[in-house]
Write a structure and sequence with these properties.
The chain is mainly alpha-helical. Helices cover 55% and strands 5% of the residues.
Length: 280
């Protein structure tokens, strides 16, 4: 969603070897799962410059702060809230589909919460920290299938580690060196983690990231038993909401349009069999 920044690469020649060493145990990016029906190619190797565990820790800290702020304002849904129970019920069908896209997801401490706000928004932070805003459920009058498409899309951003890649591209040498030092026990990450955690709340992904999230989310939802055609009706609703004055903030980072809808329509047949099998 934000333009790719290659300027850092030109500034790194003398430090690239160190940065790659600092990433240490970084492995080659995994290809898309063998059983995947949608084609999203390989994940970016650049993400390996940011340690996954450190980023997930920062995300967990920021998520906890977000929930604490909402609780203080009386805007955090209680465990017996019907809408939150609905969200968590949907998540129990989607989360089991996640490890095939990212093996780390097996150890993530997944959370799903609902924040009281008129904002049309939802997100999933690295490490499986999901939040929906009441506005996106109420104003768009979403069906369970459409909720599953949004949840799958946001989960896909975390599973494909788009935030990790984006931060590696935009943070600059100083941050990466600090992360490298942390790996070798040469420095503390506390302040840096807080800084990165704050950025996670406003991070913008590239168009390619959004395409991946659409397709991976479509497959996750289909495997979880949700009709993939709901992805089309969802983005039609998003488009209608975007045509109104002061359209949803969600669309500033998840632009809708005929091309996006067409791409989803083209991929629905690829996952239709998964949906039908999941329904028994």
């Amino acid at each position: 969603m934000c333009p790719l920044c290659n300027a850092h690469h030109r500034a790194w020649p003398g430090r690239r070897a160190f940065l790659l060493a600092a990433a240490g145990a970084a492995t080659l990016a995994a290809s898309a799962p063998a059983l995947a029906q949608v084609d999203v190619g390989r994940s970016s190797q650049l993400r390996n410059l940011i340690p996954a565990a450190e980023l997930e820790t920062a995300a967990a800290q920021q998520y906890a702060k977000t929930l604490a702020d909402a609780r203080a304002q009386g805007a955090l849904a209680s465990a017996n809230d019907p809408q939150l129970m609905r969200l968590r019920g949907i998540s129990t069908k989607l989360i089991p589909q996640s490890p095939q896209w990212n093996d780390r997801a097996k150890s993530w401490k997944w959370e799903v919460n609902l924040l009281g706000s008129k904002q049309i928004n939802a997100f999933c932070m690295p490490g499986g920290k999901i939040a929906f805003y009441t506005g996106i459920l109420e104003q768009l009058k979403l069906t369970d299938e459409e909720v599953a498409m949004i949840m799958g899309h946001e989960m896909a951003h975390a599973l494909r580690e788009h935030a990790r890649e984006r931060i590696a591209k935009t943070q600059g040498t100083g941050t990466l060196l600090s992360l490298g030092a942390s790996l070798f026990g040469l420095g503390e990450l506390g302040g840096l983690a807080a800084n990165v955690g704050t950025q996670l709340m406003s991070l913008r992904f590239s168009r390619d990231d959004e395409t991946e999230a659409d397709l991976v989310g479509l497959e996750i939802a289909a495997r979880g038993g949700y009709n993939p055609n709901a992805a089309v009706s969802l983005w039609e609703k998003m488009g209608q909401a975007g045509n109104k004055a002061g359209g949803p903030a969600f669309l500033s980072s998840h632009p809708s349009g005929p091309a996006r809808i067409q791409q989803l329509q083209n991929n629905v047949p690829k996952v239709q069999g998964l949906y039908e099998r999941s329904r028994g």
